Structure formats: structure tokens, C-alpha cells
Amino acid sequence: MSMLKSSEIIGLIAGFLTTSGYIPQIYVVIKSKTASGLSGLFLSIMSVGISLWLVYGALIKSLSIMVANGFSLICLLVLGFYKIKDITNNH
Amino acid sequence: MSMLKSSEIIGLIAGFLTTSGYIPQIYVVIKSKTASGLSGLFLSIMSVGISLWLVYGALIKSLSIMVANGFSLICLLVLGFYKIKDITNNH
Fold first, then answer.
1. The complex's ipTM?
2. Distance (Å, rounded) from C-alpha B11 to C-alpha B5?
3. pLDDT at residue B30 is higher than 70
């Protein structure tokens, strides 16, 4: 069995938190039925950034970077869907 | 002059975007004078996660990880400040 360095354990916990953190935000948006408190630009920039992290993970062949950012991207797309629905309803 | 690998350039752009993405969100919160659309749990989990990325960056001595996550943490603390003000005002 290989031992993980303590720095890598901290990195994995960090990645788990910054990925799963989106779940309560999705819950708030679904419960309040609006994403008006979220910046569309925030969601857009984050989605492009996370997509590039996904490409980066593929290029350096890091499964954990791909999985973590793939999950974050799905969360951001869900939030973006509600944001677009908001904007459409207000026009 | 050393050449950066294309994967590292993509990683740096990704890092720049997922860091600066918080700025329009701060703008929306300040303009609307409320962070009610943001999940407090989202902000808390993200802050802890980003803090751990900061520790990770220090442990592996990566200045770019430290700078990027240090900046994100400041943004999250600003958003958290408005969230706490919201909660305090509603009690």
C-alpha cells in the first residue's frame, strides 16, 4: 500500500470541499426558484475556467482533476440553467 | 527564456478565470446590497476548501497556487461579510 504525502491529503480534502460546496448553492436556487442573487458573469467565467481545468486534467492525465472539475462543471451548468430561465422570464 | 508547456498555459488561464470569476459576484452583492441569493453553506465550504488549497500551495511551495487561492479567499470573505450582515439584519 502506498502512503500519501500529507500535502496530497490536504489537497484532496481541499478539492472535495471546493467541488461539493456547489451543492448547497444549487439547493438554495432550487428552493427559492430563482438565481437572481447569482451573477451571470460569475457563472459564465467560472464555467469557462472549470472547463479549462477539465482540459488541463486531460492533458496532464490527472483523473482526480478531471473528476472534480467535471462535477463542478455539472453544478455550474445547473445554476446557469436557472439563471437563463430567470433572464428569459424577465423579458 | 524557458518555454511553458501548452498544458501549463491552459492551467494558468483556468486559474486566472476561476479566481477572477468572483469579482462580478461581489459586484452583484454590493449593488443589490444583499447576499440573500447566496448559500451561506456554499460560502463556508468554499472558504474552508480554498483555505486548504492555500495550505497545500504553501506545503508544495507553489506561489501561483498560494496567490490564486489567497485572492479567491479574500473574495469569499467579502461575500461572507455581506451574508453575515444579511443574517444579522434579519434577526
1. 0.85
2. 10
3. yes
Count the domains in chain A: 1
Domain that holds residue B47: 6-89
Contact with chain B for residue A64, Cβ under 8 A: no
Give the separation between CA B1 and CA A71, rounded to whole angstroms: 37
Q: Is residue B1 part of a domain?
A: no
- Grid cell, residue B34, equals 444583499
Mean pLDDT computed over B47-57: 94
Residues 1-60 of A with CB under 8 A from B: 6-7, 10-11, 13-22, 24-25, 27-29, 32, 34-42, 45-46, 48-50, 52-53, 55-56, 59-60
At A35, which CATH number? 1.20.1280.290
Best interface-test mutation with B: which of A8, A16, A17 has the largest number of B CBs within 10 A? A17
Please write the tens of the pLDDT for every residue from A1-52. Answer: 466 788 888 988 999 999 999 999 999 999 999 999 999 999 999 999 999 9
**In angstroms, rounded to a whole number, what is the distance separating the alpha carbons of residues B31 and A81?**
23
